[in-house]
Amino acid sequence: MSVDVGDHDRLGTGQGPTFEAAVIEGAAIEAVAERLASARRIVALTGAGISAESGIATFRDEDGLWAAHEPEDVATMRGFRRDPARVWRFYTARRQGVLAARPNPAHLALADIEERGPHVTVVTQNIDGLHGRAGSSRVVEVHGALNRALCADCSCAALEATWEDDPAEPPACRHCGGLLRPDVVWFGEPLPLIAIGSAFDTLRRCDLCFSIGTSAQVEPAASFAFIALEAGATLIEINPELTPLSRHCDFQIRHPAGSALPAIVRAAWPEASQGGQGGHGK
After folding, report:
1. pTM of structure
2. 175 a catalytic residue
3. Which candidate in 143, 175, 255, 280 is catalytic?
């Protein structure tokens, strides 16, 4: 069954209700909540849309990061070799912005689901670390993380690099003297094998999969949901916009995740709704 809570005619209201009315009265939320409450292994695929609700800039929107910066200059190894200081400053500014942001209700709702008992794995394309700060304990970061660095020459991880002094130039690797770079996946680079292997393994074993705030257009992440479908999982898309994945989903919820996910969690575990989400968020 595919139900779109953004389509009031399909909900049978005959008029354009607010989303909150659809949450209270709509069969879609209740049906998704029922599946969620009975699921045992859940995967949440998340993209830029979920972090945008925390004020994190997206890439391709009209006022996104690529509107002000050429990807070739700041998100490729060639750009880093040409002007490492420029690239380092770009990511230092992004890291400062991420540190100033806070997990939003969607991040917190995913952590709450984990607390209710199911095995939840978040597979995210985001590099901001907000899922971990919200309290999710199993997060697969397929595009890396802003708070880590590695050597551009010997590729060793440099966990000691914390950007504390916001240097204008990238620090030197303590092992080989090469320049440190952010531990994120740039254009032309493969996704980390360990992360991809972990994502594939969890997707093959899940019985419910959320696709949240992702355009479902960038490969290979765009194909992740189909692995869950092949495994027989219920597929639920939460996105204000239609995507190439939409027609394959069992449920479509056309609303931002920050409103939709908490509503689903409340409907799935009404007895715990008074507890709120105040225990998370760093």
Report:
1. 0.84
2. no
3. 143
